[in-house]
Amino acid sequence: MTPTIAVLGASGFVGSRLLEVFHLSGFATVRPIVRNYSSLARLARFNLDWRVADACDQDALQTAFKGCDAVVNLVVADADIIVKNAILSYEAAQAAGVKRLVFMSSASVHGQAPSPGTDEASPLHTNHRFAYNNAKVRAELALAKSRRKGDVELVILRPAIVYGPRSRWIVDIADQLLCGNAYLVNGGLGVCNSIYVDNLIEAIQLALSVPSVDREIFLVGDNESVNWYQFYSLIGSSLGCDPARISRVATPCFGSSLLDTFETVRTSKPVQALLPSVPPVLKQAAKGAIKAVSAKPKPSPWQLPKSISPIITEEMTQLQSCVFKLPSSKAQLSLGYSANISFLEGMKRSIGWLEFAGYPVISCQ
Predict the structure, then answer these.
(1) For residue 64, what are the domain limits?
(2) Is residue 58 part of a domain?
(3) Is 185 inside a domain boundary?
C-alpha cells in the first residue's frame, strides 16, 4: 500500500524536488505543508493534497498530519524556529498517529570544518560560532528527548552542502563568478562535503521505508571526495570564467562581534532556563538593539565607484578550510544508501539548469 507522507517545508529547494520525485515515481502520496498560499506557486502544477499550516502551530500541524503514515521535516528558518518547530512537529505527529518522523538536520552540528574522524557518534556541543549550528544541535537533542517519551519513530539525516538545480550553492557561486568577486581560500584545496539533491532524496526515501532504524542518525554525502576548487571551476568553466582568475585568499582571522557574543550568552543553559519568563516584547527589543548596534553603516550614495572585491565571510572560510570528508558508511550499511548520482553528473545537471534559467552557459560539463 502506498504510504501518505506529509512534507513540512515543501516549497523549499529540497522539499520541491522531493515532491517531484515521490509523486512522479509513485513512491508515496505526498501532502505538501506550507506556511502560506503563495508558497504553493511551484507546487500547483501537481494535483496534491496540500495544506497550509504555521510551522510553530501545533494544532494546525496535527490537523495537517492527520491520516499520514510519516512526516518529513525540511523546515528552513531562523535558530529559534528550528528548535521550536522540531519539538512541535514531533508532538503534532504523536497526536496525529504518525508512525515515523524524518528530521533534516545538518552536518554543521559538527561545525563547518569537522575534525578528522568525525562521525555520527562524535559528541555535540552548542558552542559553535554560528547560531544555525547550535540550533540544529538543540533540535536534535530536543527530538531525542521527545522520542524517549513518545511513540513516533525518529530518523535524523545530516547532509552538508546540498547542491543541484535551483540550489543557492549553484546560483550564488555562478553570480559571484560572473561578477568577479568569487574567491577560494588557500587555493580551494579544502574538502567540499557535497551531496547532490537527488542523492539526498534517496536517503530520505530510505529513512522513511527501511525498518529497524528508529532513533538512528545518518551523515549522508556524495561518494566522491571533491575540493572547493573543483566545485568552483566546473561552474566557472561552463560560464567562460577562467578558474585561474578566481581570487585566492589566505585564511583570514575573524574576531567575535557583539552579535556573536550576544548569541553565545543567549544560547547558554542558564539563560535558556530563564527565557520562558521573559516577556516576548523584551526579547524582540534586545535582539533589535543588538542587531542595530552591530549593523554596518550603509555606504553613502555619493562615494566614487570602487573596484569589485570578494566579500569574505567566516562561514565560507571555515567551509573551504575543511580537511575531512564526512563518512556515509553508516547510511550505506544500515539504509542501503548508494548515492547513485555522481558528482560530475550532478554538476552537469546543475549547469544545464543554469542554461535553462538564462545564464550565459557556453558548455555543460
Answers:
(1) 4-167+194-223+325-340
(2) yes
(3) no
Residue 181 forms part of a structural domain: no
Angstrom distance (rounded) from CA 349 to CA 343: 10
Closest CA to 99 of 21, 4, 219, 202: 4
C-alpha cell, 20:
517531484
What is this structure's pTM? 0.85
307: left (phi over 0), alpha (psi -120 to 50) or beta: beta
CA angle 160, 164, 169 (to 5 degrees): 60
CATH number of the domain that residue 26 is part of:
3.40.50.720
**Which residues is 100 bridged to in the sheet?**
70, 153
Measured CA to CA in angstroms, residue 348 lies from 42, 166, 196, 236, 355 at distances of 23, 13, 11, 12, 11
Q: How many domains does the chain have?
A: 1
Q: Flag whether 69 is in a domain.
A: yes
Distance of CA 269 to the CA centre of its chain: 25
Tracing cell 502520496 back to the chain, one arrives at: 29
User: Which residue pairs, CB below 8 angstroms and at least 24 apart, start in 120-129?
Assistant: 120/158, 120/217, 120/218, 120/219, 120/330, 126/267, 127/264, 129/260, 129/314, 129/318
Q: Tell me how many helices (H) and strands (E) the chain has.
A: 13, 13
Is 241 in contact with 361 (CB distance < 8 Å)?
no
Question: How far apart (Å, rounded) are the C-alpha atoms in residues 49 and 18?
Answer: 15
Per-residue pLDDT of the chain (365 residues; tens, 9 = 90+): 799 999 999 989 999 999 999 999 999 999 999 887 666 666 667 778 889 999 999 999 999 999 999 999 999 988 989 999 999 999 999 999 999 999 999 999 999 999 999 999 999 999 999 999 999 999 999 999 999 999 999 999 999 999 999 999 999 999 999 999 999 999 999 999 999 999 999 999 999 999 999 999 999 999 999 999 999 999 999 999 999 999 998 887 776 554 555 555 555 555 555 656 666 666 666 666 555 545 555 554 544 444 466 788 999 999 999 999 999 999 999 999 999 999 999 999 999 999 999 999 996 55
Rounded to 5 degrees, φ, ψ at 192 are -100, 110
